[in-house]
Design goal:
Elements: H1 2-11, H2 28-46, H3 55-68, H4 73-81, H5 84-87, H6 91-104, H7 122-135, H8 139-143, H9 149-163, H10 171-182, H11 184-195, H12 202-213, H13 219-228, H14 237-257, H15 259-279, H16 283-303, H17 305-325, H18 329-349, H19 351-371, H20 375-395, H21 397-417, H22 421-441, H23 443-462
Helix pairs in contact: 1-2, 2-7, 3-7, 4-6, 7-9, 9-10, 9-11, 10-11, 10-12, 11-12, 12-14, 13-14, 14-15, 15-16, 15-17, 16-17, 17-18, 17-19, 18-19, 19-20, 19-21, 20-21, 21-22, 21-23, 22-23
Organism: Streptomyces spororaveus
Pfam families: TPR_10
Protein name: Tetratricopeptide repeat protein
Length: about 475
Amino acid sequence: MTALADLLDTARTEPADSTAGEEDVRDVEDRLLGHEARYWQASAAARSLTPGLGMDTLKTALAAAHLTGAADREHADVLWQRLPALADQPRDRRNQVTAWLAALYPATTSRNGPPWGALQPDRLAERHTGRTLDADPYLADQLLDGVGGTQAEQLLTVYSRAAAHPAFRGRLDTHLTDLCIRHHRQLSPHIVTTATRTDHPTPLTNALDTITTDPATTLDDLNALHGRFPRTSHRLATTAARLATTLTRRYRSLAEANPDAYLPDLASALNNLSVCLGAVGRRDEGLATVQEAVTIRRSLAEANPTAYLPDLASALNNLSVRLGAVGQHDEGLTAAQEAVDHYRSLAGANPTAYLPDLAMTLNNLSVRLGAVGQHDESLTAAQEAVDHYRSLAEANPDAYLPDLASALNNLSIRLGAVGRREEGLTAVQEAVTIRRSLAEANPELFGPALQQSLDTTAWLEGLEP
């Protein structure tokens, strides 16, 4: 970028024009944006867009194009109608803006696809967009009116990347957080998704924390937000724990006033909270929390097994994990075995509903058996879990490939523990293949799992053949 800026500076013969975007030439990105701004202005004049439209309007349109994009020319016109300076323009003038952008940055896709490409490199687009948002924080509010999920996630992604630039000194962080809070009902699922993918998630996680702890956030909104969190995310673990804590407090208050109506909800909140506490290293608190959940669910299941036995089995499986995490392996094995017994009975009556749960508890039972040295029994449970997950993943790979990889990784460890090294390597290599593909799509969610399988591979390769 520096070499290109030097070359363009050398080639430039006309005097500097303060209206062409050279307010700040302290770094290479601003220097390049100055050259781009002259290119934009010359192209707009050649197409007779100026002086009818000001360059500030066109620069805003360019930032909007980076923030949400457009699937085709009709979507581009809808985008321009969200901008006050273009909304009252005739359609042919808005079409000229689309054509201007398409000429500046031609699309690389088919004729019926997006009408324009992108300013490259990305950092230039982000710097220009950041400047625009810094000057007009409510531009993003205008762009969110009626957008779909893909455009909302693009806006949050570009905004977060622009906010990461040191030139904006945290100002855009605050603007983005406030935007997410104002529109949290629309944006919550996209905030969560984007936070696991962007390199600068701080303004998004700050928004989630504020929404979670705000007494004005309704219980329905909290539950909807909780349902959008991934099962595992190091980046969102603390936020998930705060959300689960808030939900537990709300349900405890309701259950104290009306136990018949809200005890099942309190037990669910406690079960979820224990998982979240375990994820942030608060193992003892996680164990105490799930023990309370099991107590409540056991009482409910005794009164109405048809309704509550599955919930008891889920809490028992979680209890076994929490007991293992604090070194109580025998007690963890007992809880895991009870969970498997319940799910085996449930899956026998309704395999469609409960086979995934049976596979999950078998995988956990295998770990618990291995922890107490029952390696043959551990291998048997691990193999059954893999068989179930393989069947499930063949029918629904998006839902069950991560679970199959986890079961394969565990199976490889169990095979290694009984001296079947080569078979263990075959199993873990399959796990690595699956997890590598998943990690390429989302490294934050699946990168740690991939590393786990690579570590397992190294352990197996180090065993005596």
